[in-house]
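Researcher: Structure for this, please.
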Amino acid sequence: MRFPQLFSSRWGDERLTRHASRWQTIDAAKPVACLFLARIGLIATATAVAGLAGAGGMDTPITAKWSGIGLREWADRVSELAHVPVIVDRRLDPDTTIAFDCQAVPLGDLLAQAATLAGGELAVVRSSIRIVPPGKAAALSRAETARNAQLAALPPRQRAQLAERRPWTWAAGACPSDLVAASAAEAGVVMQDSDRIPHDHLPATELPPLTLAERLDLVLAGYDLRIDWQADHNRDPKRATGRIVAIEHGLATKTPRRPDAEKTTDHSPGKRTAAVSKPIGDQQPAAGGETFSLRVAAPLQEVLVVISARLKLRLDIDRDSLRRRGIALAEIVRATVKDVTREQLLTAILDPLALEWTIRDGTLHVFAPAEAAPE
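Model: Predicted structure, C-alpha cell format:
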C-alpha cells in the first residue's frame, strides 16, 4: 500500500541502503543521526519526538539514502515509509533540494530536518504529517483539538456523516472550492461561507482513506482556513452543518513559557532582545540533561540547518549582519565536541566566526554583532 503526497502526483521506488563504513561515531553506544549531504553527523542522547498515533511512531528508525531530489518527491517517498501522508504545504517551495544519507534515524528527526531545509516546521496531527510555514504548526494542532470536541458534541447521525472514511482523488487543475463543495454535497453536509476559499488550481492528488472532516480541513489548512462544526437544531437533524472560518477563529492561544535556563539578554541595541543562555567556562551538563557530540567540517549554513532541526528549533540567520562583517554562509565550520550542552554546542560552532546567537520562542537566531562605533 502506498500513501501519496497532497499536491503531488510523482512517485518513485525507495532505495534503502546501509553504509556503516561511512559513519563517524564518537560513541558507538549512542544513536546515530542523519548525515546531511554526507558531511555532518550529530549525535544526541535525548529521546526522539513523541510518537504519531496509528502510524508506527515518530521514533521509527529510518535507514535510507536520497540524492538531491525535490522536497515534494521526497515527501512522497517518506509517505510510503511512514504509512501516513506526508504533506508539503502549498506555500513552501516543493522543489527544495533534499539530500540525506541516514542510518537508523528517528522518523521525527528526519522530517524536522527536511522542514527546516524548506524554511518551515513540522506539524504532526492524527491523520497526517505536514511540513508547514513557520508558526503554523500550533494552529493546526489547536484546530484539530477543536474539531474533535465539536464532532463529539454533534448528534449521532451528523457525527456519523463526518466520520465516514473514504479515499480522495482529484485530477490536475482541480479547484479547492469545487472539491470542498462536491465532497460536502455527496455526503449530504450543509456548507456555509464557501466563498472564503481562494480560487486556486491544484496538482493531481490521491489520498488514502480519511474521514470527511479530516479531508476537508486538510485542503483548507493550506489557506489558513478550517470548518467550524456546530449543531444546528433549526435545520435537518440528519445533516451536519459546517461553516468555513479562519483557522484561528475561536481557538485559545497559549503564551509559550521560556525555560528557566534562558535569560533575556540584549545583544544588539535597538534590534534584538531575546532569550539566550551561554556556557560559562567549563560548564558541565546537568545530571540527566540532554548532551550532544559533533564532528563536522561543512559550510556554515548547512551545519546550522541540521543543528537547528536536531534541537527542534526554527532557524533565522541575519544574512545582512553576516554580509556586513564579510562572513559567507559557505564558510567552512570545523568543530569536534563530545557530551556537551546545547549552549556549548552552539558556542563551539559560532564562536570561531565571532557570531552570536539567541533563542526566542522556539527560534534560533544567528547574527554577527554590530561593530563598535569609533570613539
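Researcher: Any notable elements?
Model: The chain is about 25% helix and 30% strand. The chain has a mean pLDDT of 74.
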